[in-house]
Amino acid sequence: MILKFEKAINKNQEQRVRYADQPEKFMESEADLDEEIKNLATLTEAPHLYPEIVKLGSVPSIMSLLSHENTDIAIDAIDLINELIDEDVGTGEDELERSEEATNGMKALANALLENELLELLVQNLERLDEKEEADRQGIFKILGIMESLLGLDPQLAERIALKTEIMPWLLKRVQGKGYDSNRGYAAEIISILLQESRDIRLKLGELNGVDVLLRALSGYRKKDPEDEDESEMVENFFNALCSGLNEPEIKEKFLEGEGVELMVIMLKERTLARIRAMKVLNYALTTEAGRGNCLRFGVKKLKKAYSKTFVESEDEEHIMCIILSLLRNLSRNDVQRLRLVKKFIDDNFEKIDRLLEMKEFYEGKDQRVRAEIEKEKEEYDEEDIEVLKDDFYLRRLDAGLFTLQRVCLVIAALSKEDQGIRERTMMMLKRQGSDISSIFRIIEEETALMADFSYLSRVATGGAVEADDQR
Predict the structure, then answer these.
(1) Percent of the chain with pLDDT over 70
(2) Which of 313-327, 359-373, 415-429 has the lowest mean pLDDT?
(3) What is the pLDDT of residue 94?
(4) Mean pLDDT across the stretch 431-453?
(5) 226, 259, 309, 347: which could join 231 in a potential S-S bond, CB 3.0 to 4.6 Å?
(6) What is the pLDDT of residues 136-150, one digit of tens each?
């Protein structure tokens, strides 16, 4: 099969040179080449044989086709590469995972392709192909598919893809515009995947004005929902990309400059898909000291809208609690915004404090039920197994709402320290629930102890010094 493929390439090259001014005389050889490229796709049934393709020296031949004068042949080669390293290769109907031999074969082929400038040639074709033509549009979709497959085989390729090629500028240009099409949606997904992997890639987003690009893309959904599931996935990827970027202080600054806070607040006012995701973005934008500027811009009037009882999703409540904590941490006692924040919890006869204590009772009940389930399961394990599963048990509690419960208790404790009236109201409401302030501190102390353990163990594991304060 490889021999026939190589012969078809050589014959086509020879006739293209001999009959450069007479295309009709080399068209038959081009059709034969097209057929042989498509025949190679049957190799996807035997990925363990991919190293043989490398040994036979066919990878440079496949790469040469990406620069073929006939874009149809180049697209054939793109399609072939996409098929060969697709995530489903090596898995049948009864196999959820491919064998180690098949995976190693795919990695061997992928490495050989990369050594022969696969990424650079793919990016050249992104610029070369014309999406007004259906075949070219499909070719671009398959190039993005190759990028996704490569990242699936080796996530560490993200920096090489994003920083060593011109893919990021192309992707950011492609996601601009309005409405949904498959390539715009795929470009959004690739951006989202790349930004998860590296601070340098996230900084590259800022350098390329990518924060503004994402905000403009999202602005089209500030008052309307996506029309279908595919468009919804694209919007989700825009939000996810923004959240990934906001892990970096520099991107928080870009978000502030681009009036990202204002856009997210507009979204909060609408009953749309974007509203829930806007809350998550604000959570990321306001955290840490680098989020102080966004905290000042966000203000407290906007928080009132976010903290209404119409929000019932647990994810909303988690993000709202994180936002309140960020405001309390980042707004100084001299900031008028902080005074307004505390006043909101005093207004209307401490209505919002009562709501916080309702949330505490609700999430504490959920946590108690999960803890009871875990204790029952522990009866089936010995002490060694229980120790191994300790982290899994705690993650189950977090998933059931413990994280939100911890944030609620932190907010209650912080506000009680701010104002005596809040403190007295808290004591009274806790008593009505058959509880007291110790229940709040117990939850906070559990998280603090775990975080201290994590910090201590991390220092030990990395060979760092452990100071007396750390031990305490």
Answers:
(1) 91
(2) 313-327
(3) 61
(4) 83
(5) 226
(6) 999 999 999 999 999
Tens of pLDDT, residue by residue over 216-248, are 999 999 888 899 999 999 999 999 999 999 999
Q: What is the pLDDT of residues 16-52, one digit of tens each?
A: 888 878 878 888 888 999 999 999 999 999 999 999 9
Structure tokens at 443: 């939850």
Position 368: which residue type? Answer: Q
The reported pLDDT for the residue numbered 462 is: 34
User: Hey, what are 250's tokens?
Assistant: 């520099």
Measure the CA–CA gap between 256 and 285, rounded to whole angstroms. 9
Spatial separation of the C-alpha atoms in residues 110 and 149, rounded to whole Å: 10
Per-residue 3-state assignment (H helix, E strand, C coil) for the chain: CHHHHHHHHHHHHHHHHHCCCCHHHCHHHHHHHHHHHHHHHHHHHCHHHHHHHHHCCHHHHHHHHCCCCCHHHHHHHHHHHHHHCCCCCCCCCCCCCCCHHHHHHHHHHHHHHHHCCHHHHHHHHHHHCCCCCHHHHHHHHHHHHHHHHHHHHCCCHHHHHHHHCCHHHHHHHHCCCCCCCHHHHHHHHHHHHHHCCCHHHHHHHHHCCHHHHHHHHHHCCCCCCCCCHHHHHHHHHHHHHHHHHCCCHHHHHHHHHCCHHHHHHHHHCCCCHHHHHHHHHHHHHHCCHHHHHHHHHHCCHHHHHHCCCCCCCHHHHHHHHHHHHHHHHHCCCCCHHHHHHHHHHHHHHHHHHHHHHHHHHHHHHHHHHHHHHHHHHHCCCCHHHHHHCHHHHHHHHHHHHHHHHHHHHHHHHHHHHHCHHHHHHHHHHHHHCCCCHHHHHHHHHHHHHHHHHHHHHHHHHCCCCCCHHHHC
Structure tokens at 63: 């790469």
Q: In this structure, how many other beta carbons lie within 10 angstroms of the beta carbon of residue 470?
A: 13
Residues 6+ apart with CB under 8 A from 344: 300, 303, 304, 307, 352
Amino acid at 178: K
